[in-house]
Write a structure and sequence with these properties.
33 strands; 21% strand
C-alpha cells in the first residue's frame, strides 16, 4: 500500500488537516458550549432577579449611593410664659465613609500617591476624630474597619467651632499633600511624601444637624425629659417622650449617586428631600413657681438627708388641673443625662453595692471610685473589675436602676401610701352620703377593737377623748376615721375610691403612669371580708395611690367636687409659631356636692390654724391642708428597721382655692424625724408664702395675726422731731430717740424697709448718726421666739417671724431656720427672718 496516498502534505509540515466532518463536529460542540454557558448565565441572572433581588439591589445601592439623613429642627419646649426650656440649635454631624478606604479612587492608597496601607489610614482617621472631637478612638476605628458600609455617623451635635477646627486639620493635611506632590513632580518623581500629608476629603464628611440644649440645666428635668444622641434621636422620658410625634418633625435625606470607582457624580445625580421641622409645645409650668418649688425641695432634702427615696412636689391649679410646677430630688441635667451628681444618690448606690457583694460573698474591695458612680464607663474600672463577669453584672444593674430612678417622674410613675391625707376622702365621702355631719361626735380612748382578734391604735396613745367631726380631722384621729368608715360600710366607701379616680390612671400627659393593680389597692371583696382592712384603709394605710392621683382628688374636694384631668401642656404651636391646638381644662366628673366641698374647706383650714398642720401656716393667707405619715414597714417590724414617708397636702386661699401643693419626703428611718406635720408641712408653707405673693393674692390679717403684718418705714431725715413722730406713728411703728436736738439726722431702719408693725424705729437727733459698724448675726436655731427677739433687739436688728402662728406657740416652739445665716455681717437695722416650728401637737400617724 502506498502510504503516501493516505497522507496529505499540503503545508509541508507533515501534519494531518482536520476533515470537514470533524470541523462540523467541533463547530457544533462550540455552539453547544456557548448555549449552555449562556443559559447558565441567564438562569443565574433570573435567580438573582427573582429570588435575591433585594439582597443584590441593596448591596449595589450601598456601593453606588451615599445616603445622608437630614435631621429636622426639633420643636421648642416653652414654659407658660414662653421661656425656652428645651431648644434645638444648629450644629453639625460628622460622618466617615468606610468603603472609601478600599476604593480605587483613594489617593491615600494609590501606589503613585501616598501608598499608605488601609489599616494605617483607618487608624489615622480614628486618631484625628478622637483627638479633635473627644470621642472614643476604639469605637471610631471599629466603624472605619467596616468597609462594606458607605457612611456611618461618628459624632452628633458638633459645635461649629469644633467642626471648623476639624476642617482646619483636614486642610493642613491636604495642603501638605499638595506641596509634597508638587515637589515630587518637579523632581520628576523623586522624593517622598511627608508624614503630615494625607487626604481626608473622601473619608470624612460633615452634615448639617441640630443639637438639643436645655438652657436651664436641671430645671424641671424629670418633667421635660431628654434626648438620645443618635442618627435618629428620640425623646426619653418627660415631655420630650410624651410629645415626640409633635416635636420631632420629619427627617429628610440626600442621596448622592457614586461612580463604580466610588467617586461622586455631578450634582444632577443628587436627590434631596428636605426635612420638615417639628412643632413646639407650651407647658403649663410657670418657671417662677417651678423655681420656688425646687428651691424649697433642696432645703427639704438638706434638712432630711436620711430620706432614702428623696423628696418630690407638685403645684397644681385647683380650677383647671394645670400643673404649675413638678419636681423631685435627686434630679439630673438633661444636657448630660447619664451623669449622677447627687452625693446622696451615690451613697445609696454604694450601700446597695455593698449589700449585693455581701450577699454574693464577694470581695468588698470591689467598690469602684466615685468617677464610675458618677459617669459609668469601663475606663473608670480597673482591668480586674472588668474581667469579673459577676461583678460587672451587679455594677451594670445598680447603675441602670439608679439612672432610671433618677429619670422617671415619681409623682406620676410611683405609688405611695397616702397615710392620713386620705382622711380627707373618708370624711368627704361620709359627709356626702349623710353618714356624718358637723355635729357628729366620736370618742377616742387611744385604740379601737375592730374584731375579736384585732385592736388598732390611734397615733395619740392616750386618746383624743370626745371630739366633733371637724376636731377629729384636725386631730388626725384614726379611731374616728375607722368608725366613720364602719358607718358608711365597705360598698359606699369603695364607691368613692372609684369616683375620685383612685382606681384608674389620671391620664396626665406624661409618660410612665401605670394602671392600678391588685397589689396597690384593696378590692371591694377584701373590704367586705375583713373589717380590719376597711379600718386601716380609712386612714390611708396598706394601699397605694400616685401623688398625682392624690393631688387631683384633693383639688376636687376643695373645688366644689369637680374632678379634673391634670395636664402639663396648654398649647401646641406649628413650626411657624401659629397655634395648632389649645388644651382646655377637662372636668372628668362631679364627685361631691358644693355643700360638702364647702364644709371640707372649712375643716381643712382648721387643720392648719388649729391642728396637726399648723407648721404650714402663712400669716395673712387662709391655708388649709392635711398632714400624713405613712408606715412603710409591715406590722411586727423591729422599731429600728421601720421606715416612713412624710407628706403634706395644702390648698390656698381657702375662701377661693387657687393652688394645691403636695410635698412628699420619702423613705425615712424611725430614728429620724419623720412626721408629715413636723417636716413636710413647713415646706408647703414656704412654697405657699412665695407663690401666693407671686400670684398677687393680697394677704388679709386678722387680729391674731397683727404681729405678722409688715409696714414700710417712712422717710424722716431732715424732719422736725414733731413731724417725725407723727410720720412714724401713722406708719404703725414705735420710736426711740438718740441724741439731742430738734432735727432728724439719721434713722434705723432706712426709709422704705419692711418691718413688723409696732416695731421700734431708732431716730437720731442733732449731730448723732447711726454706727457704720457691722453687726454679727447670732445663731438663733433652737431658740424660742422670745429668746430670738431679745438677741436681735440687743444688736439693733429686727425679727421677721415666719412659720407657726404666734398664737400657737408652745413650750416646744423653736427656731428652725434663719436668714441671713449665723455669723453673717449686716448693718444696724437689718431684718432677720426666722422660721419657727412646733413639734408638739403635729403628730398624725
Amino acid at each position: 500500500m502506498d502510504i503516501n496516498g493516505l497522507i496529505s502534505d499540503t503545508n509541508g509540515s507533515g501534519s494531518k488537516a482536520p476533515s470537514m466532518r470533524m470541523k462540523r463536529r467541533m463547530t457544533v460542540m462550540a455552539v453547544l458550549a456557548c448555549v449552555i454557558g449562556f443559559s447558565a448565565v441567564v438562569v443565574r441572572l433570573a435567580w438573582m432577579q427573582l429570588y435575591r433581588f433585594e439582597y443584590y439591589n441593596t448591596k449595589a445601592s450601598s456601593l453606588q449611593t451615599r445616603d445622608t439623613i437630614l435631621q429636622p429642627k426639633r420643636g421648642t419646649i416653652y414654659d407658660s410664659n414662653m421661656t425656652e426650656l428645651a431648644v434645638s440649635a444648629s450644629t453639625e454631624r460628622v460622618e466617615i465613609y468606610p468603603s472609601q478606604f478600599v476604593s480605587k479612587d483613594n489617593i491615600n492608597s494609590s501606589p503613585t500617591g501616598l501608598n499608605i496601607p488601609v489599616e494605617e489610614q483607618q487608624e489615622r482617621v480614628a486618631r484625628l476624630l478622637s483627638d479633635v472631637l473627644g470621642i472614643d478612638y476604639d469605637s471610631v476605628l471599629k466603624k472605619a474597619q467596616d468597609t462594606k458600609k458607605g457612611g456611618l455617623s461618628v459624632a452628633f451635635g458638633v459645635e461649629k467651632e469644633v467642626a471648623d477646627q476639624l476642617r482646619e486639620e483636614i486642610k493642613k493635611a491636604k495642603d501638605a499633600y499638595n506641596e509634597d506632590r508638587k515637589r515630587i513632580q518637579q523632581n520628576k518623581g523623586a522624593g517622598r511624601y511627608s508624614k503630615e500629608a494625607f487626604v481626608y476629603g473622601s473619608l470624612i464628611g460633615f452634615v448639617d444637624d441640630y443639637h438639643r440644649y436645655y438652657p436651664m440645666g436641671a430645671f424641671a428635668s424629670q418633667a421635660i425629659g431628654f434626648m438620645t444622641e443618635s442618627e435618629n434621636p428620640e425623646g426619653q422620658w418627660g415631655i420630650e417622650r410624651q410629645y415626640e410625634s409633635e416635636l420631632a418633625g420629619s427627617a429628610g435625606r440626600i442621596v448622592r449617586v457614586a461612580s463604580s470607582a466610588g467617586g461622586e457624580l455631578p450634582i444632577e445625580a443628587e436627590q434631596n428631600v428636605p426635612a420638615q421641622d417639628g412643632n413646639s409645645v407650651v407647658l403649663t409650668i410657670d418657671s417662677t413657681i417651678q423655681e420656688t418649688l425646687e428651691k424649697q425641695l433642696e432645703t427639704a432634702l438638706a434638712d432630711n438627708p436620711k430620706a432614702r427615696g428623696g423628696v418630690s412636689g407638685i403645684v397644681m391649679d385647683v380650677k383647671t388641673g394645670e400643673i404649675l410646677a413638678l419636681a423631685e430630688l435627686p434630679d439630673f441635667d438633661p444636657n448630660t443625662p447619664n451623669t449622677i451628681t447627687s452625693e446622696q444618690q451615690i451613697d445609696s448606690m454604694k450601700e446597695r453595692l455593698t449589700e449585693r457583694l455581701t450577699e454574693k460573698e464577694m470581695d468588698l474591695k470591689n467598690i469602684p471610685d466615685d468617677a464610675w458612680f458618677q459617669n459609668g464607663g469601663a475606663k473608670n474600672l480597673t482591668q480586674e473589675m472588668q474581667n469579673d463577669k459577676d461583678l460587672m453584672e451587679i455594677l451594670t444593674e445598680i447603675r441602670t436602676t439608679s439612672l432610671n430612678d433618677m429619670w422617671k417622674i415619681k409623682p406620676v410613675t410611683d405609688k405611695y401610701e397616702p397615710g392620713s391625707a386620705f382622711k380627707l376622702v373618708t370624711v368627704a365621702a361620709a359627709y356626702e352620703e349623710h353618714a356624718v355631719n358637723p355635729n357628729s361626735t366620736f370618742y377616742c380612748n387611744g385604740a379601737l377593737k375592730v374584731d375579736a382578734e384585732t385592736t388598732i391604735k390611734c397615733h395619740k396613745v392616750g386618746g383624743h377623748g370626745q371630739q366633733t367631726l371637724t376636731e377629729a380631722l384636725k386631730n388626725s384621729c384614726n379611731v374616728a376615721m375607722m368608725n366613720i368608715a364602719f358607718q358608711m360600710g365597705p360598698d359606699k366607701f369603695y364607691q368613692y375610691f372609684d369616683a375620685f379616680g383612685l382606681l384608674d390612671r389620671t391620664d396626665i400627659d406624661l409618660p410612665g403612669e401605670r394602671d392600678t393593680v391588685a397589689s396597690d389597692m384593696h378590692s371591694l371583696e377584701a373590704l367586705r371580708k375583713t373589717k380590719s382592712t376597711l379600718a386601716t384603709t380609712s386612714f390611708g394605710q396598706r394601699f397605694k395611690v400616685s401623688p398625682i392621683q392624690m393631688l387631683s382628688t384633693v383639688s376636687a374636694i376643695v373645688d366644689d367636687g369637680r374632678l379634673k384631668k391634670p395636664h402639663m401642656v396648654k398649647e401646641i404651636l406649628n413650626a411657624d409659631g401659629t397655634v395648632k391646638q389649645s388644651i382646655e381644662p377637662e372636668i372628668t366628673r362631679q364627685v361631691i356636692s358644693a355643700e360638702t366641698s364647702a364644709y371640707m374647706r372649712e375643716a381643712m383650714e382648721k387643720v392648719v390654724s388649729e391642728g396637726t398642720g399648723q407648721n404650714a401656716y402663712v400669716a395673712g393667707y387662709r391655708i388649709g391642708g392635711k398632714t400624713a405619715t405613712s408606715e412603710l414597714s409591715l406590722p411586727g417590724t423591729p422599731l429600728d428597721k421601720q421606715r416612713y414617708t412624710a407628706s403634706f397636702v395644702g390648698v390656698a386661699p381657702m375662701d377661693n382655692p387657687q393652688i394645691a401643693v403636695l410635698i412628699i419626703i420619702s423613705d425615712l428611718p424611725y430614728h429620724a424625724t419623720h412626721g408629715g406635720g413636723a417636716i413636710a408641712a413647713p415646706v408647703v408653707g414656704r412654697v405657699m408664702n412665695e407663690v401666693l405673693q407671686y400670684l398677687n393674692v393680697e394677704p388679709i390679717y386678722d387680729e391674731s395675726e397683727a404681729g405678722r403684718r409688715e409696714v414700710s418705714t417712712p422717710r424722716i431725715l431732715g424732719m422736725s422731731k414733731e413731724d417725725a413722730v407723727a410720720a412714724v406713728e401713722r406708719a404703725g411703728l414705735k420710736y426711740r430717740f438718740l441724741g439731742e436736738g430738734d432735727t432728724i439726722s439719721d434713722q434705723v431702719p432706712s426709709a422704705g424697709q419692711k418691718i413688723p408693725v409696732n416695731s421700734e424705729m431708732i431716730v437720731y437727733l442733732g449731730e448723732r448718726t447711726k454706727t457704720t459698724e457691722l453687726m454679727t448675726v447670732p445663731r438663733l436655731i433652737g431658740r424660742s421666739p422670745d429668746e430670738a427677739e431679745s438677741m436681735l433687739e440687743h444688736r439693733n436688728l429686727y425679727l421677721r417671724r415666719t412659720g407657726v402662728a404666734s398664737n400657737k406657740y408652745n413650750w416646744q416652739t423653736n427656731a428652725v431656720k434663719q436668714n441671713p445665716a449665723a455669723g453673717s455681717k449686716v448693718s444696724v437695722g437689718t431684718v432677720i427672718e426666722v422660721e419657727f416650728s412646733n413639734t408638739e401637737g403635729v403628730s398624725d400617724r
